[in-house]
Amino acid sequence: GIPIVIGIGFTLGYTGGLNSIAALLAVKVFSASGWSPTVAAYANVFADARFRGDLLVTIVVTVATAAVVLVPAYAFALYARLAGNWLGRFVSGVAVIPLFIPIVIGAYSIREFYLGTGFLVSLGKLVGLHLPTLAYHTPGIVIGQIWASLPFAVLLISSGLAAVPEALMEAARDSGATQFRAVRSVMVPMTLVPTVIVVTFTAVAVMGSFTVPYMIGPAAPNMLGVTLQAYYAAYQRPQQAQVMAVVLFVLAAGIGALYVWANARQARSSAVAL
């Protein structure tokens, strides 16, 4: 936690001590007056239209990815749980393949696939369709983030569905419930905690990602992970980069509150069951 405290102190204008070298080499540093902190660095960053655009893109991509990932992940895991045959195992196995592919290779492949000269657009031209170029655009980032996030979501939801006792499903069907009603009334409530964990973990991972938006996204606006790296390395403005990191930390902490709530709810349920 010490580097975090030092970094937050740097954003508040404490440029001495362990922050002195960064402040000496940096461009446009805002220093505190004595022990009184200053928020001039925050005001400078939030006044930048590029930062506001990148922040909006980061939030939109995070929300879109977390929402979209949940649908195929739940569909694959539910089919594998209900079918119980080789096809269900095959589908769930294919869904986790990206877990074993380095993210750099996956992002490069996705970019080449959705380029204006890529496979998808070229195939569309052969059949007379003008398909959009998704690489170097925000939708391309969402596609890449979904591809990278899906395996973890499938694994976690599959484990949650596997933990639902089959006796409860049989009891629901014996009571006259259809398969859909049994899933809605039994499985979905009992997998609420794994579902919340999938959403929170996916959102936090996407929000702080760098490789996918760097390789697939546009020059601007892009996600904050790419922007703060550019401010730190290319623009020599580490204080502003630290401000962006603090903003990401606050957003991630807000998302993490859902994870804490889910675990607390699970602990209370376990205590009641005991």
Furnish the topology, listing elements before pairings.
Blueprint: H1 2-11, H2 20-25, H3 40-46, H4 49-83, H5 86-95, H6 103-113, H7 119-126, H8 138-162, H9 166-174, H10 179-190, H11 192-207, H12 211-216, H13 224-234, H14 238-273
Helix pairs in contact: 1-14, 3-14, 4-5, 4-8, 4-11, 6-8, 8-11, 9-10, 11-14, 13-14
Q: First CA to last CA: what distance?
A: 36 Å
Task: Determine the number of helices (DSSP H or I, runs of at least 4 residues).
Answer: 14
Using the alpha-carbon principal axes, give the shape: flat
N-to-C order of helices and strands: HHHHHHHHHHHHHH
- Strand percentage lies at under 5%
Structural class: mainly alpha
Unreliable stretches (pLDDT < 50, length at least 5) are none
Reported for the largest beta sheet, the result is: none
Number of strands: 0
The residue-averaged pLDDT reads: 89
Query: Helix coverage percent of residues?
Result: over 70%
State Rg: 23 Å
Summarize the structure in short.
By secondary structure, this protein is mainly alpha-helical.
Folded structure, characterized:
With 274 residues, the protein is mainly alpha-helical. Helices cover 74% and strands 0% of the residues. The chain has 14 helices and no strands. It has helices at residues 2-11, 20-25, 40-46, 49-83, 86-95, 103-113, 119-126, 138-162, 166-174, 179-190, 192-207, 211-216, 224-234, 238-273. Helix 4 (49-83) packs antiparallel against helix 5 and helix 4 (49-83) runs parallel beside helix 8 (138-162). The longest helix is centred in the last third of the chain and has 36 residues, at 238-273. It is flat and about 75 Å long. The two termini are 36 Å apart. The relative contact order is 0.13.
